[in-house]
Amino acid sequence: MKKLYIFLLSFFLLMSCASKEEEIYTPIPYNLDIPQLFADKLIAPIIPTNNPLTEEGVALGKKLFFDTILSADGTKSCASCHNPKSAFTDEQQFSVGIDGKIGFRNAMPLFNLAWNFDDRFNWDGKAFGLENQAFEPVSNPIELHADWKKIEEKLQNHQEYPTLFLRAFGSSTIDSTFVTNAIAQFERTLISGNSKFDEFLLGKATLTPEEENGFNVFMDEAKGDCFHCHGSNNNPLWTNNQFHNNGLDRNFTDLGLGKITGDPADNGKFKSPSLRNLAFTAPYMHDGRFATLEEVINHYSEGLQPSATIDPLMKQIDKGGVNLSPKDKADLKAFLVTLSDLDFINNTAFQQ
Asked: Which of 131, 256, 294, 314 has its CA 20 to 30 A from that of 64?
C-alpha cells in the first residue's frame, strides 16, 4: 500500500507540473523583418488572430517543413518540392510524390505569402488561407500520401515534438491543426525583398541601359504591357495575386480556377505568380511548360492563343501578342532578372 501511495502521489505531482507548464508558458512574439519598400508601399501583412507568429511556432514550423515524418513512408518533406535554393519551388516540371506518382502542375514558389491579400492559395485558388493550404499535401495521394491520424501518432510518440508543440501552442497533444498552424507561421516569415531592383528603387544601385529599357518595356502599354498582372515599382510583390487566362491554350485540359468555382467563365484561369526570383524558379507557368525566360517572353510576344475566357488584358490577342523586337525581348529579360534576390535563397534562417 505504501508503494502504491508513493506511486499515486508521484503521478499526481507529475500531472500537476505538466498542467502548470501548459498554463504558465507564454510563447515569445515573432517580429517579421519587413523590407523598407514593403513598409512604404503595402499594407501590413495578413496574420490571422487565431494563429499569431511566435518564435516557438515559427521554429516548430520550420522543423516540420523539412521533416520527412510528414510523409507516409518517411522519404519526403515539404522541402522536397519546395527547395529553398530554388526560391522554394521545384526545378522539375512536375514534382514526384512518395509512391513515384507525378503531379500535373509545377510547384509554386513560396515567399511573401503574408501579403496574399485575397487569401487564396495554389495555382487554382483551391485553398483559402495558408493553414488550409498546408493541410492538403500531407494526405494528397500524389504528394506525401499519408493519413493525418497516423502522422499525429508519429509526432505524438516522437522524442522532441510533444515538448515543442507544448511551448508553441500550450498543449502537448498534437493534432493536424497545430501542425498546419506551425507550418503556416514559418511560411509567413519567407520574405524576399532585397533584389537589385529593390536596391535601385532605394537609391543604392544603378541599372544598366539594357535593364532600364527592359523596365520601360515592362511598363509600356504599347510594348510589354506586363504591369497590370505583375506589379510595378509601386507594387513590390510583383504580382496582383489574381487569376487570369493568359492565352496559353485554345482548349483546356486543366480548368484551373474554373474547376474550383464551377463557373465556365473561370476556365483556364490561374494565379499570377510573382516575378521575383525568376532566375531561380524555372520552369515557368502552372504546368512548367516553359523552360526558359526567353520562351515566356516569346509567348507574350507572339504566342498567345485565343479562347472564350482569354483575359481582356491580353489586348493584342488578335496579333498573337505584343510583338516585341529582339532588343526589347533581351532587355526585358535583363530587367526581369534584376528582381531576383540572392539573399533570400542564401538565408540560413530559411534552410535546414
From this structure: 256
